[in-house]
Amino acid sequence: MGKGKLCIDIGGTKIIFAIINRDGDIIKSKRIDTPKSKDLFLEVLTYNITDYLQFSNNIINVSIAGRIDNTGKIIFSPNLPILGFNFMKFMKGFSSKVTIENDGNCFGAYHLYAGDLKKYKSALVVVWGTGIGSSIIYSKKIYKGGGLAAESGHIVYDYNTGEDIESAIGGKSIEQLYGIDGFGLQKLAERGDKKALKAFDEIGRMFGFYLSSMILILDPEAIIIGGSFANSWKFIKDSVYKVVNDKKIRRKIKIEIARGKFYVVRGCYFIDEYENSNNKL
Question: Which transformation does this protein catalyse, written as a reaction (predicted)?
Fold first, then answer.
């Protein structure tokens, strides 16, 4: 078995560990549920990183559903139990070659360096699952601003309550609102359940407002949407397009749906290489 980078995708629902080589092949991988307590979370990471590191070249790239500051501390992670924890210091206990990036930019990195975005100068990439992450492609690079750009899932959606768009239609919130997760809602919609179809219509309308705002700000050449809700796009797209069209966007923007399961962890492979990576050694 050849060695590659250890790439870890830490999401609010699941964690994926993968050894990925230069050709983009996943040599070895494992998926586990994300623990809800900090102690168990760190215990599970320690066990699996130690196990997988023996198959790696000692480079560890991590995608995380949260924000990390320049000291390595987690400053925002609504779906992970490690707020305030110095995650970079923890990871450096396994290897000196560690790079950490948010999940949206890892998803964007895959499509920029290995996918269809090579042909575009600008694009918006959205990963919509437990939460909502995004990545901005500008001049064929991932735009990071001061280091934390593109956290668009936390743009305020309801100015009366201060609720952000992730709190309105992220997977965690949808499960709380409808009493069923996105996958279950999709299964009901596929059977023609009227309540599920109505729910997706409303979810699509809210996502359409979010997408319209992003389009008006960025004017991207293309948009790619991935994550678990990409699988339900056929139930959402009509209400999304209606809102976007009502906003009189000046031109038709290409929207592509990415339905693969490993885009984020595959994009993780590139984050120690692309220019101006946040928290790079």
Answer: N-acetyl-D-glucosamine + ATP = N-acetyl-D-glucosamine 6-phosphate + ADP + H(+)
| Max Cα-Cα span within the chain | 56
3-state SS, residue 39: helix
In a domain, 67, yes or no: yes
How many CB atoms within 10 Å of residue 234?
12
pTM of the model: 0.86
- The tally of CA atoms less than 13 A away on the side-chain side of residue 275 is 9
CA–CA separation, 88 vs 99, rounded Å?
A: 8
Residue that is last in its domain, among 102, 122, 146: 102
pLDDT along the chain (281 residues), means of 10: 89 95 93 97 98 96 91 90 96 96 93 88 93 92 84 89 93 92 95 97 96 93 93 96 83 83 92 61 33
